[in-house]
Amino acid sequence: MDTRVVSQLSQLIDPSIPFNATTNHTHSTWARTFHSTPELYIQPASLPEISKALRLAHRCRRRITTAGCGHSPSSMTSTSSWLMNLDKFNKIIEVDKEKCIVRMQAGIRLYQVGEELDKVGLAMPNLGSINQQSIAGAISTGTHGSTLRHGILSASILELKITLASGETKECGPGKNEELFRAALLSLGALGVISEITFQAVPAFTLAWKQIVDRDVIMFNDWEKDLWKQTEFVRVWWFPYTRRAVVWTAEKTTEPERSPPTSYYDAWLGYHIYHNLLCLGHYIPRVLPWVEWFVFGMQYGFKAGTTTSAVQKSRQALLMNCLYSQFVNEWALPLHKGPEALRRLSSWLNQLSPSDPDYIEHGIPYSAKGLYVHAPVEVRVTDTSNSTTPRPYLDPTCTDEATLYLNATLYRPYNMDPPCRARYYQGFEYLMKELGGRPHWAKNFDTTGREIEEMYGERLQEWRKVRDEADPEGMFVGEWHRYTIMGEGGPLPLEEVEVSRQQLRTGGVLINGVVGGAEQGLGEKGLGGNSSEESFDEMRASEVTIKG
Fold first, then answer.
1. Contacts of 321 (CB under 8 A, 6+ apart)
2. Which DSSP category does 537 fall into?
3. Which residues, 6+ apart, have CB-to-CB distance to 438 below 8 Å?
4. 9 CB contacts (<8 Å, ≥6 apart)?
5. 122 - beta bridge partners?
6. How far apart are CA 348 and CA 418, in angstroms?
7. What is the pLDDT of residues 205-244, one digit of tens each?
């Protein structure tokens, strides 16, 4: 840490409010796709501590990035400035069992929410595929599940508190600072630090689920009938090379709990076999179609019509195992375009000829020759078209019909980047854009900021207006934000600019940045151009604990 920053931190005021920070911290995404070494790693345990850290960052001319478990595999949370983690700000504050309303600190992880709600007979109405994220991180990136009876996770947020760059905490919700509320519901970490959330829970429920593996044509033929409406929760895994699909359905039940069946191949053995087959595919890509047939035949059954079922609590049934480090590229598009999207992707990946019964013209202007990818493609749905709650400005879902999500996953065996990534995602994104899709914010898309401006139009402009009012100096803005959503211009005074990337031998990319475009964010007069007298005239040493 820069010695000038240390000397200024020694002048802090109000010893009753701690400022606990750690140096020598390395921040990595869960998938180990991106790494960074923040100057300070801060873990506040109270709202005053959050506010104090932001006031201090402003005076020190530093950017603040907030990260939970780092599950997004993108570089959104990479920083060389100050990184804030709210794992110690993770309590349930208040529960109204009669109204099923829960108020909680924003750093609480989703699995903790589920456990605490279960103790009082409540549950979250919907979940995504994992529960490791913090509640603030989940809503800030547009996390969703797979059901036509629910929208994205933020639809269950009744009110929230957000602490701004000034250190001021504002309450917002429907009819109360509603523009700020709509911007904060999907903020991408660029407005402030979400500190408290009021959430609409539901009575605890159990799900009876089953999954059936069959030819994908069965799934396509059922698409417009009752595929997505047969139960409350439905999701699909599509396998391009074997042209099969697993359809998973779940409905609420009063049946006693019953665990999924297990076999010798499950857990440790299957995990390591698949991992090493993916590693083999890294060097000999043409084996990947066979890997798809073998691995998922062992997991779901080789015979068409094979069925598996169980009865579990919702907080268990709705989850899935993400297995290994991975890139994920997920897009939201109109639900009715699903069969066309998957058939065109199949024609491209399998290089089908017109004589093949599954052939349709794919229209993707890139060759798939020698291209072999991982499976499956995850297929999920939501419906926000009839929502009565304030819509986030950056909500990627459709406004006039249900939304389909297609997620093209590529595993990174032993943290090695798959050789197919560039061309697969190039073709996949071309198809998604042609079908009117928008990328999931937390995933690995390559779409440019100018294209995103066209996708969101006035809604993006409105979000930028609210963001600029909340954070005029860009304390919460980094390189990812500038490239993706901030538009041309900048950098803002506290915006972090990426200066280098280094491919690590152990896997992933190390990102280095500076604040305001100057080395270490320092100006001629000290930090950010302000003298120590100007920036730190109200600070004393007793407020600071910095561990090396």
1. none
2. T
3. 331, 332, 333, 396, 452, 455, 456
4. 19, 56, 60, 539, 541, 544, 546
5. 203
6. 19
7. 999 999 999 999 999 999 999 999 999 999 999 999 999 9
